[in-house]
Amino acid sequence: MIPLLTCDAIERLLRERFAGVELPSPDGTESSVNIFQMNLPQPRAQTMRPRRHDEDGNEIPPRAEDDAPLEEGGYSRGEARAIFPAIVVRPVKFIGADEADFWGMLTVVLSVGAFDESPECSEGVKRVLNIMERCRQLFEKERILESRYKINLPVQYELYDESVRPFWFGEMITEWRVKALVQELDPRNDFRLESKALIYYDRE
């Protein structure tokens, strides 16, 4: 499927270019950027808890406040620290090729999120903006992915308001020209060949 294959290519590019990138967090630590397709992981997944270790390599048990959900049905602090910052790659619209063009148009949204519950609440916004700017510059340099998917410039993004604090989000909208499938003609069902035969018959 063209939308999924395009998103796979975008995800591979992002994973490659964000590998080893560590962004400072409000508590003074650094964290890597997680990349997902379609949606963020569901809350309460125990495997998403970050594992901490002391200087001797012994695992430090999670603090009680790390397990408490920040809101009803939402992430705990431990889950939020493990998941964010994150990029979600999601296709939202596809327009197939017409008779005069061999390219389809796919709209892919990159949702960028960060977690910041510090009093200033500025670091979360900065992290979202930092990630989206990195993506914008990356797409402007890598305009064609895997010789099949070409981005339409310019890309655009916007920051959301603080209504979901301590989570911070932004959204980048990208449009990709993707190669359409080549039509396979069966001579037995090709109306053009049939019309040519009728013309030839009339001339006789």
What does this structure look like?
With 204 residues, the protein is an alpha+beta fold. It has 5 helices and 10 strands; from the N terminus they run αβββββααββαβββα. The chain has one domain (2-203): 2-Layer Sandwich (STM4215-like), CATH 3.30.2000.30. Strand 4 (52-53) and strand 5 form a beta hairpin. It is 30% helix and 31% strand. The N and C termini lie far apart (48 Å). The strands form 3 sheets. A 6-stranded mixed beta sheet has the order 3-6-7-10-9-8. It has a two-stranded antiparallel ribbon with strand order 1-2. Strands 4-5 form a two-stranded antiparallel ribbon.
Compile the SSE list and pairings:
Elements: H1 2-18, E1 22-24, E2 30-32, E3 34-37, E4 52-53, E5 59-60, H2 64-67, H3 77-83, E6 86-95, E7 103-115, H4 122-141, E8 144-145, E9 149-159, E10 167-179, H5 191-203
Parallel strand pairs: 3-6
Antiparallel strand pairs: 1-2, 4-5, 6-7, 7-10, 8-9, 9-10
